[in-house]
Amino acid sequence: MLSPEEISAIYISMKVAVCSTLLILPPAIFISWVLAKSSIRGKSFIETLVNMPLALAPVVSGFFLLILISRTGVVGRILYEDLGIELTFTWYAAVLASAVIAFPLLVRVARVAMEEVDPKLENAARTLGASPWRVFYTVTLPLSIRGVIAGSILAFTRSLGEFGATIMLAGNIPGKTQTIPLAVFNCVQTGHEDEGLRLVFIATILAFSALFAAQSISSRTTH
Amino acid sequence: MKLKVDIRRRAGTFYLDVAFSVEKTLTAIFGPSGSGKTTILNCITGVIRPCDGEISIDGNPLYSSRDRINLPPENRHIGYVFQEGLLFPHLTVEKNIFYGFRQEDEARCHIAPQAVIDVLEIKSLLGKKPGRLSGGEQQRVAIARALLSHPQLLIFDEPVSALDWALKSRFLRYLKRIKEEFRVPILYVTHALSEIMNLADEVIVVKDGRVLATGGVSSLFHYPHIFPIIESEGLENVLTLKVLLHNKERGVTELELGNQRLLVPLSGAEIGSSVSVIVRAQDVIVSHEKPRGLSARNILEGVVGDVSIAGSKAVLSVDLGGRMIVEITPEALRELGINVGEKYFFIIKANSIRVC
Q1: Do residues A21 and A152 touch, judged by C-beta distance below 8 A?
Q2: pLDDT tens track of chain B, all 356 residues?
Q3: Highest CATH level, class, for A4-219
Q4: How far apart are CA A96 and CA A102, in angstroms?
Q5: Same domain, yes or no, for B271 and B154?
Q6: Residue B210 is part of a domain; what is its CATH number?
């Protein structure tokens, strides 16, 4: 039914989306907390920076990343010359590309959920002797966990559909970095629209079920 | 325990400048809404920060602008029972009350979990989530949670302002038991003095961000500028009394008031249990001699402890086996020649007494 190439595209897509979501989860929760609860200065600057990938074309974000991690890039050179690691055109690069593009989506949803946690509850926890860190993981996070999960699913879905930054950074290598969107692109380029249709169908089913799950989680009441 | 507060704080156009100390078992901070009471509490608990000044307990600074000390709330050991209860909605009652519990503090503070659960009667609630509790139950759980964090001071912020009188009086009975059983100093904030009048050892009157007066309840009536604040709430006596017996034939319930008996309309309360009664200060009649042939059921003896005149009213503080405020006209005060320290008769219609 599905060709080995299609199966591998689905597998790579899932692998990349799962890894990129897990990768951004801890920093996204931290940034969400900073934006929602802390009173540091320069919050709007951080927020703008986090949201940049939403405003930029993914190809442009991908280009920035390429400058950063290619063999001659600022970070890439260190990785290559000192550690012998080259990220570009590997599936790790696809993870990185998806992570950067999906990051703001997770932060937006998680941040709103954390803002909805009553600061008075957090103050109550403080007066009961809880440190800010304990307040975070016993009160703030449990009460905003639905938002964090919904945001993660959203980020996962966005990773599944990532195209622009991925093709810039990881290329379009079948069996290695070729995800579903890249495979669809290939099919159309080479005039095999009918093959592409199957993948389009699968991508649509995946996206719909994930979004539906996120929707039902976030619309359910917390208590 | 001695809490010393001497702070200033500006927020917008509101300027708070208060200095007072708290040494008694139960101290009430009383003042109209918007007078700065909650701001003072938030400064004491460390939720907000004053502009300058000093807050200390037994000489240990919690906040000092001079020494640049500002302990975070978690290091102040002050239990705060919030107006809204503020239980953690995702935790069971049991997890809520043990949230701030530390085994090592238990011996030092003599507050055992079992005693707290018993006094506040929350045993049957332990497995429930706060969302399934009534308002009164939530509040008891909130008190248990604060007590079990072994505070050196327990603060109540308008704990009953949202409750009706039946729940209010129930709460006050719990408060009385807490005061008696756990030796935790209590700071009780309210805008209705009557609810705390008979439990407070001392009252601090606050208005517009300033302390107007400090002293025992009856002494407050001497301040002409404070009287209107107290009076605007209506002068009511709230007493918590024990039920002695029900007399179905006469249609009355007898309550213990010192060594006298207070007769109230027949109530359904259990014999031996406590009820709260509310007697409006203006519903009490004063007499030199013991009157005869009256329809009023209560003719009580009492000693006048204090007299003050404020505007068109004379306020007597009377000991009837429980402190009561009695309000008469200054003319009546003159005609009767009422003297402090002397014994008089006080007449109260059973039907004018509300029982909760």
Answers
A1: yes
A2: 899 999 999 988 899 999 999 998 899 998 888 899 989 999 999 999 999 999 999 999 999 999 999 999 999 999 999 878 899 999 999 999 999 998 777 666 678 899 999 999 999 999 999 999 988 899 999 999 999 999 999 999 988 877 777 778 888 888 988 988 888 899 999 888 877 877 889 999 999 999 988 988 777 777 777 777 776 666 788 888 899 999 999 999 999 998 999 999 998 888 988 888 889 888 999 999 999 888 999 999 999 988 888 777 888 889 998 888 899 998 999 998 899 999 999 999 999 998 87
A3: mainly alpha
A4: 10
A5: no
A6: 3.40.50.300
Does B73 lie at the interface with A, CB-CB under 8 angstroms? yes
**B180 lies in the same domain as B250:** no
**Contacts with B91 (C-beta within 8 Å, 6 or more apart), sequence order:** B99, B129, B130
Q: For an interface test with A, which of B87, B88, B143 has the most A Cβ atoms less than 10 Å from its Cβ?
A: B88
CB of A118 within 8 Å of a chain B CB? The answer is yes
CATH code, B341: 2.40.50.100
- Contact list in A for residue B88 (CB cut-off 8 A) is 121, 124-125, 138-139
Identity of the residue in A126, A127, A139 whose CB atom sits nearest the CB atom of B88: A139
As a whole number of angstroms, the distance between CA A130 and CA A143 comes to 16
Same domain (yes/no): B11, B118: yes
Q: Would you list the domain boundaries of chain A?
A: 4-219
Question: CB of B149 within 8 Å of any CB in chain A?
Answer: yes
Nearest CA in chain B to A129: B74
Beta bridge partners of B4: B21, B56
Short-list A15, A24, A14, A85, CA closest to A50: A24
Domain that holds residue B258: 237-355
Whether residues B82 and A124 touch (CB distance < 8 A) is answered with yes
Chain B hits for A118, CB-CB cut-off 8 Å, are 86
Are B223 and B255 in the same domain?
Answer: no
Half-sphere exposure (CA, 13 Å, Cβ side) for B355? 21
Are B225 and B265 found together in one domain?
no
For testing the chain A interface, which of B81, B86, B132 should be mutated: the one with the most A CBs within 10 Å? B86
My answer on whether B312 and B189 are in the same domain is no
Which tokens is B47 given?
Answer: 């939720």
Q: At which residue do the structure tokens 């919030």 appear? A: B82
Contact B90 A126 (CB under 8 A): no
Do both B210 and B246 map to the same domain? no
Work out how many CB contacts closer than 8 A connect A with B: 61
